[in-house]
């Protein structure tokens, strides 16, 4: 055990005198508890990061008994042992004096900022009494549960299921939902991209050089620098990805779909597409081709401001690198109400060159069970999912289920923002309580005023979090979770081209009176009288159930932190298949073309890739075929307002962490010099943005790196609750400017709107 | 791009501030005062009388350097470790050489003061120092010569100290030590005049005072010449050095230069020379002009320190 | 033979993400408000659409002829046997001559020790343990290289022999040991 001196720690964590004094007034915060010695679990622990949702494999090392140094886990090759700024700052969160380390109960009105400390038992009892009463009076379905996705949603949603409500939500509809739903509609499953082997990458504003996803960021950089891949970026602002690109096209916000469709047009009508692949694996090509006929590059230019010549040339260059080329299907940011067809059009451009399961294209991934079947032997251990028998049958419909068009989203995190209408307008029925874990809808959902109204209308709001986030500020009870550096969790599947597992482990002993998520929601379950749905004792027993009581396997996974098995396999890549067959004597025989293409299965209704989808047509009539629909994102006298992610923050959870707040605490608004000049605005001037739902004051950053008709802000700033001392009131609150609207089929909140700019 | 890399406060190019400007001023004043006091003694006919000017320099010399060194020590981030500089020497460092010079200059200056002020000491209840003055008297000539040489060194050192920083075009110039020496003389002359007139009952028509007064114009012209050389050399150096010329036209330090250095420090003394002789040689006028010179020198030190550090190549 | 430690910063690979900045703080316990290392994303420069950022690593350049060492009156600033510009904290009196004299403005007074401080390639921490500096260890895009340029087999020696590099402010005669690979669009801007 390594003894850590707390005072030194706090100094290292960057607690300035002023913030310390303020924080000490905050009940339940780390600053308010008695000093206690800190202990590291070991000198070095392999674990999983949680500073953002990407969850990279990390190693945490105790430096000189004074500090925690976090780097990547080298066992995970594609992650290279690397870690980003957010990940490296984990210790700053751990020892932040403003972190909440005791359960809190609201003392004043909701959002008033008055808190009293309360024991865990009292907190559980208070919540359980309220929830059981609500259940009796309004039914279990009147309670919504939402959670950060990843390891935590399992704990929260298991309790929801045991309690009997279908209403569970992740942040998907505010972040990655669209590309997942589009993939489900076309491939029946989520897809992965093999940027590292790509020779030609087309990118529609997927800013992985700022919103870092370590393996993809590294993959794309290696492709660019070591292998000379060409990168083409369509983005309204000059982001870091745009800077690193070989060409940057400042596309009109929200018109990406037109360019993606024009690319498909050229691929089809210049006969550049892989007709054999399409014939064999794709349904709905003819309808798509007929629809796309009208989407010429010239037409796309009129919509998007991207030159037709460029689109035509790019399509040809792209096709010349087929199948080792890719159009990146993106991640966060819902640019347009036509998000679903935008992502589908992008997938279509991939399908047309037949890059599916090819190096440098997109692929489905190999988990242990499938991989072992191909190998004809148990290359990778298969984990079991500890199911619980006799879970209550839930007859109530989800609140987002009335809209059949969102069907594919129901099991992908749900349409988060439907909580607003259900609570404020009883659509489709009344919600009464909201249980949240590590989610911050006040920042990430749109129309902040409505979210605030929703929280205030609830009979019970419970937040499990590390800070009094902007959302937790409106809770009745705050349950302080241990940080990821203090938690053990279930083994997680990290399979890519071959099977892999990794596990989160505690690096230091728990500070203060916090608890891990699995324990909090298990204990709450017990308080609710649902103990029969928790047949496991603790995380150890749960892990052992996962590895089928194979102690040595568990010990191995824990020691390495990340383990992978076998050789990378992409089913249509002959070189990989050949090497796979070489390694495993009992492996499945290759097809005549040296691939495993015949083994490809798609979980779509047709069993093939659905370029045109009867299923979608049924969910949302008129939407079976991918097509362009004109949208109006702003009024003529307004500017487009768009957002993005910065390398040192997430979209709503890191702005109060000392080290990261010190790097960046304000999101000055990008304004083009001509736009700024018209209003006599200079960098550093105070400005105001006004949209249809709100108004925000901030600072100007005049830069040529943005279109004249657009302003840009990094997301997640401008918290309005007084508890987040380092973040509150700094910068523009994006959610307060965005109206609450949902994109058809994928149910995403829309992140482009019109604003008026003024100097103040 | 937004700043995502954190606090920029430490990168403020102005590291040395007004305290250092005052130290440079005090050191220049001390050296200039001593040089003028001793120099005038050497040129005076009657070497047996301690002139009011010499007495003035005997006061200003030690007092100014002590105040300057106090500024320097308390500007250290570890003032109570200042003694480390007395036992560790890096003779590549201008500061270390300066410390060595000051280490000799300060005690010699005090010793010389005791000699010069031996008749005044009892009046200030410092009579107990008189025997020391008798002990030192035989070495007066040696002390005087050494002190004179060291004063030249100290006066120039203040310039060398900052001209050694080669990243700053405005500072990294061979003219700076000479300029600082000249402006130190200007300050020393003015200081001596003020103390002589106010403390030692000198009159504005004393021979020495008149002589001292006569030094004003040549010193000012020398300073102006050095400044012109400084800025023309920047102009012809090109690159970042040309950028440093903006110090003459931009921001607060341009005002300090034109109003403080040129206006008060040069123009008022020069204009005063066009006054009728009667008005020019009143005590009040002389004190006024001397104060203007001191202000000008103080402004010059501030201008050089702040503007000099603001333009980095 | 003594080592000649150098660092190479590839501005093409650098994405300005500040992972290095954070890792440096964690490893070396750098107090709040001061910084040993930051990468500034400057710009964009140029005319749209041909814009480019400059990824400017701001940290000690480990000069062979270091102005900070020359001006230090007490010898607290020195160059060690492997060429690393170093500081004897107990000899430093905090005159700030080195801070003022540094052409790169990368020295500062550590508010805890009150002595001058700056990047020393993790000499006391990671190098002492036989590891690479913290910034190099975490750099997500492998934009940083560190090693002994006297060893012709080292990555840095090979890199310096094969890639175009430049150093900052060489006209001042400082001979910096931080080399930069210029961005292909931005060109050399020292």
The CATH topology of the largest domain in chain A: Rossmann fold
What is the overall shape of chain A?
globular
CATH topology of chain B: Formate dehydrogenase/DMSO reductase fold
How much helix, percentage-wise, in residues of chain A?
25-40%
Strand content of chain A: 15-25%
Any guess at the CATH architecture of the largest domain in chain A? Answer: 3-Layer(aba) Sandwich
Low-confidence stretches of chain A: 1-24
Strand order of the largest sheet of chain A: 7-6-19-18-17-8-9
Name the quaternary structure: heterotrimer
Global mean pLDDT of chain B: 93
Number of strands of chain B: 0
The proportion of residues forming helix of chain B, as a percent range, comes to: over 70%
**SSE ordering of chain B:** HHHHHHHHHHHH
- Going by CATH, the homologous superfamily of chain B would be Formate dehydrogenase/DMSO reductase domain
Query: CATH top level of chain B?
Result: Mainly Alpha
Subcellular location (chain B): Cell membrane
Keywords (chain B): Cell membrane, Membrane, Transmembrane, Transmembrane helix
Membrane topology (chain B): Multi-pass membrane protein
Protein name (chain B): Polysulfide reductase
Summarize the structure.
Chain A: Pfam families: Molybdop_Fe4S4 (PF04879), Molybdopterin (PF00384), Molydop_binding (PF01568), TAT_signal (PF10518). The complex is a heterotrimer of chains A (760), B (313) and C (190). Chain B has helices spanning 18-43, 52-75, 84-87, 94-116, 130-136, 140-163, 175-199, 207-237, 240-244, 251-272, 277-280, 283-310.
Explain what the structure shows.
The complex is a heterotrimer of chains A (760), B (313) and C (190). Chain A is of the alpha/beta class. Chain A has four domains: 1-101 and 486-515 and 558-566, Single Sheet (N-terminal domain of TfIIb), CATH 2.20.25.90; 104-175 and 384-485 and 519-557, Rossmann fold (3-Layer(aba) Sandwich); 191-363 and 601-619, Dimethylsulfoxide Reductase, domain 2 (3-Layer(aba) Sandwich), CATH 3.40.228.10; 639-759, Barwin-like endoglucanases (Beta Barrel). In chain A, strand 20 and strand 21 (500-503) form a beta hairpin. The longest helix of chain A has 19 residues, at 120-138. The relative contact order of chain A is 0.15. Chain B has 313 residues and is mostly helical. Chain B has helices at residues 18-43, 52-75, 84-87, 94-116, 130-136, 140-163, 175-199, 207-237, 240-244, 251-272, 277-280, 283-310. The longest helix of chain C has 10 residues, at 19-28. Chain C is an alpha+beta fold and 190 residues long. Chain C has a three-stranded mixed beta sheet, covered by helices on one side. In chain C, strands 2-3 form a two-stranded antiparallel ribbon. A two-stranded antiparallel sheet of chain C has the order 4-5. The two termini of chain C are 31 Å apart. Classes of the chains: A alpha/beta (760), B mainly alpha (313), C alpha+beta (190). Chains in contact: A-B, A-C, B-C. Chain B: It is a multi-pass membrane protein. Chain B: It is found in: Cell membrane. Chain B: The chain crosses the membrane at residues 15-40, 52-74, 94-117, 145-168, 174-200, 212-236, 256-275, 287-307.
């Amino acid at each position: 055990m390594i003894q850590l001196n707390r005072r030194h720690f706090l100094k290292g964590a960057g607690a300035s005198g002023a913030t310390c004094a303020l924080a000490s007034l905050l009940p339940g915060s780390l600053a308010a508890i008695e000093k206690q010695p800190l202990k590291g679990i070991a000198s070095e622990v392999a674990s999983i990061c949680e500073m953002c949702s990407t969850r990279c494999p990390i190693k945490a090392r105790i430096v000189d008994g004074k500090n925690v140094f976090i780097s990547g886990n080298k066992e995970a090759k594609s992650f290279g042992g690397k870690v980003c700024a957010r990940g490296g700052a984990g210790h700053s969160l751990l020892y932040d004096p403003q972190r909440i380390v005791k359960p809190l109960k609201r003392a004043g009105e909701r959002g008033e900022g008055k808190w009293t400390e309360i024991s865990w038992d009292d907190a559980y009892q208070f919540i359980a009494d309220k929830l059981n009463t609500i259940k009796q009076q309004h039914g279990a379905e009147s309670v919504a549960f939402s959670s950060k996705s990843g390891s935590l949603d399992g704990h929260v949603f298991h309790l929801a299921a045991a309690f009997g409500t279908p209403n569970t939500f992740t942040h998907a509809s505010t972040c990655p939902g669209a590309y997942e739903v589009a993939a489900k509609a076309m491939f029946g499953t989520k897809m992965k991209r093999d940027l590292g082997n790509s020779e030609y990458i087309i990118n529609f504003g997927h800013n992985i050089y700022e919103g870092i996803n370590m393996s993809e960021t590294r993959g794309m950089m290696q492709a660019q620098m070591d292998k000379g891949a060409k990168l083409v970026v369509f983005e309204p602002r000059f982001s870091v990805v745009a800077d690193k690109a070989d060409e940057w096209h400042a596309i009109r916000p929200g018109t990406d779909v037109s360019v993606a469709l024009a690319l498909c047009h050229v691929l089809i009508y210049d006969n550049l597409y892989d007709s054999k692949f399409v014939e064999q694996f794709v349904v709905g090509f003819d309808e798509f081709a007929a629809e796309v006929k009208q989407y010429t590059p010239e037409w796309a230019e009129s919509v998007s401001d991207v030159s037709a010549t460029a689109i035509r040339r790019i399509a040809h260059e792209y096709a010349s690198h087929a199948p080792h080329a890719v159009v990146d299907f993106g991640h966060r940011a819902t640019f347009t109400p036509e998000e679903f067809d935008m992502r589908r059009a992008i997938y279509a451009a991939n399908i047309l060159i037949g890059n599916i399961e090819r190096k440098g294209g997109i692929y489905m991934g190999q988990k242990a069970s499938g991989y072992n079947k191909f190998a004809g032997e148990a290359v990778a251990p298969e984990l079991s999912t500890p199911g619980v028998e006799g879970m209550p049958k839930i007859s109530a419909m989800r609140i987002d289920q009335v809209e059949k068009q969102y069907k594919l989203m129901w099991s992908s995190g749900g349409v988060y923002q439907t909580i607003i209408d259900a609570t404020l307008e009883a659509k489709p029925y009344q919600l009464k309580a909201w249980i949240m874990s590590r989610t911050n809808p006040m920042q990430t959902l749109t129309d902040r005023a409505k979210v605030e109204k929703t929280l205030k209308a609830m009979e019970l709001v419970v937040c499990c979090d590390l800070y009094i986030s902007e959302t937790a500020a409106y809770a009745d009870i705050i349950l302080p979770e241990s940080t990821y550096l203090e938690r053990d969790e279930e083994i997680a599947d990290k399979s890519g081209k071959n099977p892999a597992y990794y596990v989160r482990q505690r690096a230091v002993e728990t500070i203060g009176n916090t608890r891990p998520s699995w324990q909090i929601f298990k204990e709450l379950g017990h308080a609710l009288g649902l103990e029969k749905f928790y047949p496991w004792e603790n995380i150890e027993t749960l892990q052992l159930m996962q590895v089928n009581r194979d102690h040595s396997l568990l010990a191995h996974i824990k020691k390495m932190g990340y383990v992978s098995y076998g050789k990378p396999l992409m089913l249509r890549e002959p070189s990989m298949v050949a090497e796979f067959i070489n390694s495993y004597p009992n492996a499945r025989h290759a097809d005549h073309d040296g691939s495993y293409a015949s083994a490809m299965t798609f979980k779509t209704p047709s069993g093939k890739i659905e370029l045109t989808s009867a299923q979608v047509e049924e969910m949302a009539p008129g939407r079976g075929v991918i097509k362009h629909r004109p949208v109006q994102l702003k009024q003529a006298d307004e500017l487009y307002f768009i957002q993005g992610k910065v390398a040192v923050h997430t979209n709503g959870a890191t702005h109060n962490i000392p080290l990261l707040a010190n790097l960046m605490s304000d999101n000055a608004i990008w304004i083009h010099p001509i736009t700024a000049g018209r209003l006599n605005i200079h960098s550093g001037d105070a400005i105001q943005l006004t949209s249809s739902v709100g108004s925000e004051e901030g600072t100007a950053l005049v830069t040529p790196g943005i279109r004249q008709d657009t302003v840009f802000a990094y997301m997640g700033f401008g918290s309005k609750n007084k508890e987040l001392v380092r973040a509150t009131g700094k910068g523009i609150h994006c959610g307060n400017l965005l109206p609450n609207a949902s994109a058809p089929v994928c149910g995403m909140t829309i992140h482009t709107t019109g604003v008026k700019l003024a100097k103040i | 791009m937004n700043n995502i890399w954190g606090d920029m406060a430490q990168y403020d190019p102005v590291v040395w501030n007004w305290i250092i400007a005052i130290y440079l001023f005090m050191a220049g004043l001390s050296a200039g005062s001593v040089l003028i006091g001793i120099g005038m003694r050497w040129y005076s006919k009657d070497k047996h009388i301690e002139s009011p000017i010499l007495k003035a320099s005997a006061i200003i010399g030690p007092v100014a350097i002590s105040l300057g060194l106090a500024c320097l020590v308390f500007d250290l981030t570890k003032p109570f470790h200042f003694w480390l500089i007395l036992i560790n020497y890096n003779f590549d460092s201008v500061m270390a050489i300066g410390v060595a010079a000051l280490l000799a200059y300060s005690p010699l200056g005090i010793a010389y003061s005791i000699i010069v002020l031996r008749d005044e000491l009892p009046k200030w209840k410092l009579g107990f120092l008189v025997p020391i003055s008798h002990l030192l008297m035989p070495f007066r000539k040696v002390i005087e010569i050494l002190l004179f040489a060291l004063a030249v060194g100290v006066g120039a050192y203040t310039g060398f100290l900052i001209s050694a920083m080669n990243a700053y075009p405005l500072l990294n110039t061979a003219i700076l030590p000479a300029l600082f020496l000249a402006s130190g003389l200007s300050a020393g002359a003015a200081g001596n005049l003020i103390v002589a007139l106010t403390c030692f009952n000198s009159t504005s028509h004393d021979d020495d005072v008149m002589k001292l007064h006569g030094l004003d114009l040549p010193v000012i012209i020398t300073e102006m010449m050095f400044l012109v050389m400084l800025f023309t050399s920047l102009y012809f150096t090109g690159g970042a050095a040309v950028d440093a010329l903006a110090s003459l036209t931009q921001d607060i330090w341009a005002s300090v230069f034109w109003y403080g250095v040129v206006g008060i420090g040069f123009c008022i003394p020069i204009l005063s020379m066009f006054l009728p002789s009667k008005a020019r040689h009143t005590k009040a006028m002389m004190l006024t002009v001397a104060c203007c010179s001191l202000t000008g020198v103080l402004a010059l030190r501030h201008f050089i320190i702040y503007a000099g550090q603001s333009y980095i190549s | 033979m003594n080592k000649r430690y150098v660092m190479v910063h590839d501005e093409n690979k650098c994405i300005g993400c500040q992972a290095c900045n954070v890792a440096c703080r964690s490893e070396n316990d750098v107090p709040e408000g001061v910084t040993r290392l930051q990468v500034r994303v400057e710009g964009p420069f140029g005319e749209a659409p041909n814009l480019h950022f400059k990824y400017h690593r701001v940290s000690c350049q480990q000069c062979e002829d270091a102005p900070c060492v020359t001006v230090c009156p007490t010898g607290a600033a020195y160059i060690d046997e492997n060429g690393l510009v170093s500081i004897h904290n107990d000899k430093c009196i905090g005159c700030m001559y080195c801070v003022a004299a540094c052409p790169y403005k990368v020295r500062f007074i550590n508010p805890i020790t009150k002595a001058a401080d700056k990047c020393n390639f993790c000499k006391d921490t990671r190098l002492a343990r036989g590891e690479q500096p913290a910034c190099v260890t975490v750099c997500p895009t492998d934009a940083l290289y560190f090693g002994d340029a006297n060893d012709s087999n080292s990555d840095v020696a090979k890199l310096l022999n094969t890639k175009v590099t430049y150093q900052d402010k060489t006209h001042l005669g400082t001979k910096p040991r931080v080399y930069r690979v210029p961005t292909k669009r931005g060109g050399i801007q020292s």
